[in-house]
Design brief:
The structure is a single chain. With 240 residues, the chain is α+β, with helices and mostly antiparallel strands. It has two domains: 64 residues, Orthogonal Bundle (Arc Repressor Mutant, subunit A); 158 residues, Chorismate lyase (3-Layer(aba) Sandwich), CATH 3.40.1410.10. Helix content is 27%, strand content 34%. β8 and β9 form a beta hairpin. The longest helix has 14 residues. The structure holds 2-acetamido-2-deoxy-6-O-phosphono-alpha-D-glucopyranose. 2-acetamido-2-deoxy-6-O-phosphono-alpha-D-glucopyranose (16G) binds next to α4, β6, α6, β8 and β9. InterPro entries: Bact_HTH_transcr_reg, Chorismate_lyase_/UTRA_dom_sf, Tscrpt_reg_HTH_GntR, UTRA, WH-like_DNA-bd_sf, WH_DNA-bd_sf. This is GntR family transcriptional regulator. Keywords: DNA-binding, Transcription, Transcription regulation. One of its GO terms (biological process) is negative regulation of DNA-templated transcription.
């Protein structure tokens, strides 16, 4: 029930209530939420308060609005562990999903300073710039731009990029991938992401920058990705 005498704001109580219903499966992905009017009369609260709670749930990706129809429960977010240096293909396989890639562009560039630094090369070294949409069971999850020195991996082809890059590096080229660092920050989508991730203007994304190194310390890749924040959460196990 909603407690009007509680110091906890009413909109927050309703928000938490709906979240619990989603987490416990009382409301399933694809289910339509009761209307603002229904919530307002059920809890004897104002429609404004209901709207505030629902807008918060929309912004956090729990539900989404469909114009002229109603508000629906979103697909469950993917919980991505942060411990292992895994590939997108491996991550999806591990949860029984099929990874596919849509190649947006694939070219060889003269690297800008940020790329030469990350890959520890000079500006005369040609670099692949690869942009792929990464899809899970056909749904776009992330837009990923990868920079790799052409001298390090000379034979990347469009065909190859339909498959796993890590698999090619390790199993076809026999190079051992060692470690990586990753920075994650929040943002909202730009025009390119709106188009390729199939989301609305203003949608949240998680920007990830990964630097990956081979076992011998050679920088393998610099990857800048935008993950849909409505589909993805990152989790880490901590010990004390
Ligand atoms: C992940 C990695 C990316 C790597 C890719 C290889 C993040 C943020 N990025 O998407 O750095 O290049 O996997 O995937 O996790 P693939 O082997 O399936 O091509």
């Amino acid at each position: 029930m909603i407690d009007k005498n509680s110091p906890i704001p009413i909109y927050y109580q309703l928000e938490e209530k709906i979240k619990t219903q989603i987490d416990q499966g009382e409301l399933q992905p694809g289910d339509m939420l009761p209307s603002e009017r229904e919530y307002a009369s059920q809890y004897a609260i104002s429609r404004m308060t209901v709207r505030q709670a629902i807008t918060k749930l929309v912004n956090d990706g729990y539900v989404y609005r469909k114009k002229g129809t109603g508000t629906f429960v979103s697909a469950k977010k993917i919980d991505q562990p942060l411990q292992g240096l895994t590939s997108f293909t491996e991550d999806m396989k591990a949860r029984g999903m099929v990874a596919t890639n849509r190649l947006i562009h694939f070219k060889v560039i003269s690297p800008p300073l940020s790329v030469t630094k990350a890959l520890n090369i000079d500006s005369s070294t040609p670099v692949y710039e690869i942009q792929r949409v990464r899809l899970a069971d056909g749904l776009p999850m992330a837009l990923e731009t990868t920079y790799i020195s052409k001298h390090l991996i000379p034979n990347i082809t469009e065909k190859l990029l339909e498959q796993s890059l890590y698999d090619y590096v390790e199993n076809s080229l026999g190079k051992e991938i060692g470690e990586g660092t990753q920075i994650i920050e929040s943002s909202t989508v730009n025009q390119n992401e709106i188009t390729h991730l199939n989301v609305k203007k203003g949608s949240p994304v998680l920007l990830i920058e990964r630097h990956t190194y081979l076992k011998d310390g050679t920088p393998l890749e610099l990857v800048k990705s935008s993950y849909r924040a409505d589909r993805y959460r990152f989790m880490i196990n901590m010990q004390r």
